[in-house]
Design brief:
- By secondary structure, the chain is of the alpha/beta class.
- It has three domains: 2-201, Rossmann fold (3-Layer(aba) Sandwich); 212-293, N-(1-d-carboxylethyl)-l-norvaline Dehydrogenase, domain 2, CATH 1.10.1040; 296-430, 3-Layer(aba) Sandwich (Rossmann fold).
- The chain is built from 14 helices and 13 strands.
- The chain has helices at 2-7, 22-29, 42-49, 100-112, 129-142, 180-190, 204-235, 239-246, 268-278, 285-294, 296-310, 339-348, 362-369, 399-405; strands at residues 12-16, 35-38, 68-71, 80-85, 118-121, 151-154, 173-175, 198-200, 319-323, 352-356, 384-387, 412-415, 428-430.
- Helix 4 links the parallel strand 4 (80-85) and strand 5.
- The longest helix is centred in the middle third of the chain and has 32 residues, at 204-235.
- It is elongated and about 75 Å long.
- The relative contact order is 0.08.
């Protein structure tokens, strides 16, 4: 059995894709069994060989005492018996699933797949993707038959970037397999690294569906609050004041308004909408939620310009400082960051924008969005400041700190997350 072979180090476990999901689980397994970490990016592989996490989530110490080999060469996968595929599953510019990375990873594994091997997918996909889209690739390139020659499973990732409390070992893991034997073996393998327990899903499709509705549910709930924010904004009400009052009831769900981006919540619902359409159902609630959330960046940009003009200033001659460019607080990941929507909306009014972020990489931002970071904000230069991402570094700033950056000490503070609610006394203040 594959579990016994892994424990005895007769076989290796390979994690394909060493991003914010793949690297942590590879290192956890490597504390107990022999692991190969595979990534197509040679530069990233070299960084990890030097105990550097390219995603800036893990310290150098996380690599200590780990039996792991990092590689970008398929010839190093010869003794692997258990593959975990943890590559991104993004959307394209039409908001359609881009299965390119997961299919490419399947090709890589298919070329080295042997009888008795296991392949487990962790990438977020729509129900049916593992068996209908990925398995045929494995079978074609290996010449083997799933269920007869090799086994397949699905165990969705639940890592929350930047979260130091809900970590890999402390989150219940969903596991599934193509048959009873594979489920038992996959369950046993993941128990090596999961302390919180495992949930054995009824099928691979159930496990895929469970993962995708986790983020869809959050997306819909946030969309409701965002829409309420649009309504309350027209009424002159602060949404956070309303939520604070409503939150005194025991069963009120305490979601907050904000930008919904990143590689999970801002992406996964589109996979479900796509699959639903394929089977003849046109999503209404989920699609509407996506529309609301995708529109919030532009809304913030418009409101900022409006507030500048209300102060009697010319928007065409204005300069705005945007603080934060990542998709969420305290991470370096800029993928699908909705801050760019704010910036583009401001620029559509000919507003000049400076961007700062203590976590983001300027070159990466330039490559991805055509904008780079400034090294430092300019004192006495801006008509408005937008706290777009509530990084820890921004939470202890004082009103005087903002006034020093605003032209003549006056201007607009836009605080998307409401971090400075009731703390700003002398500046024009607005939040969702």
């Amino acid at each position: 059995m594959i579990y016994d072979q892994l424990i005895k180090k007769e076989k290796s476990l390979c994690v394909v894709g060493l991003g914010y999901v793949g690297l942590p689980i590879a290192l956890e397994f490597a504390k107990d069994i022999k692991v190969v970490g595979f990534d197509i990016n040679a530069e990233r592989v070299e960084m990890m060989r030097n105990h550097i996490d390219p995603s800036n989530e893990l310290s150098k110490e996380a690599f200590d005492d780990c039996d792991i080999t990092f590689t970008n060469k398929t010839e190093d996968l010869s003794d692997v018996g258990f593959f975990i595929i943890a590559v991104p599953t993004p959307i394209n510019n039409m908001n359609l699933p881009d299965l390119g990375p997961v299919i490419s990873a399947s090709r890589t594994v298919g070329k080295v797949l042997k009888k008795g091997d296991y392949v487990v997918y962790e990438s977020t996909v729509y129900p049916g993707c593992t068996e209908d889209d990925c398995v045929p690739v494995l079978e074609e390139l290996s010449g083997l038959k799933m269920g007869v020659d090799f086994k397949v499973g699905y165990s969705p990732e639940r890592i929350n970037p930047g979260d130091k409390v809900n970590t890999l070992r402390s989150i219940i893991k969903i596991v599934s397999g193509c048959d009873a034997e594979s489920l038992d073996q996959i369950d046993a393998v993941y128990k090596i690294v999961i302390d919180a327990g495992l949930h054995r899903a009824a099928s691979i499709k159930v496990a895929e569906a469970a993962k995708i509705i986790e983020n869809t549910q959050r997306d819909v709930n946030i969309a409701l609050i965002n829409e309420l924010s649009l309504i309350f904004g027209k009424m002159g009400l602060n949404t956070y004041d309303v939520l604070e009052a409503a939150g005194t009831k025991w069963n009120f769900l305490k979601f907050q308004p904000g930008l919904v981006g990143g590689h999970c919540i801002g992406v996964d619902p589109y996979y479900l909408v796509y699959k639903a359409k394929k089977i003849g159902y046109f999503s209404k609630v989920i699609s509407s939620a996506r529309y609301v959330n995708d529109s919030m960046g532009a809304y913030v940009g418009k409101q900022t310009v409006k507030k500048i003009m209300e102060m009697g200033k010319n928007a065409l001659e204005s300069k705005v400082l945007v603080m934060g460019a990542t998709f969420k607080e305290n991470v370096s990941d800029i993928r699908n960051s909705k801050v760019i929507d704010i910036i583009r909306e401001l620029e559509s009014f000919s507003v000049h924008v400076d961007i700062v972020d203590p976590h983001a990489d300027s070159d990466e931002l330039l490559h991805e969005y055509g904008h780079s970071l400034v090294k430092a904000a300019t004192p006495n230069a801006y008509e408005a400041i937008i706290i777009a991402v509530a990084h820890q570094e921004y939470l202890n700033l004082s009103e005087s700190d903002f006034k020093n950056l605003l032209k003549d000490g006056q201007g607009v503070l836009v605080d998307i997350k409401g971090s400075y609610r009731n703390k700003i006394k002398n500046l024009a203040y607005w939040s969702l």
